[in-house]
Amino acid sequence: MRSSESEAWARLTAEQRERLKHITNPKQRERLLQAIAAGEEIPDYAWEPVTEELVDAALDGLRFWIARLQALGDERGVPYEEVLESLTEVELEDLMKRWFGT
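RE: above sequence
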């Protein structure tokens, strides 16, 4: 265990120890311990378990959007980052209708 993790374990309250038992995602667990070691205040939502499946689904969704924005950038002859920065709310709604049929 690294010194920062040891320090974090030493700082854990009984409630935090109990909550940490339910965190199975190693990255989430590590980040919580880092925040505790740094003396950061941990918001309640950060203690909600984040599963690997949820992370994978979020990454898949992000990849989907990036691919669509890249295609739109190709149509416009600009990088997808420029497309993203230039989208208005109306354009975004139109894209969602086009891509998702909503």
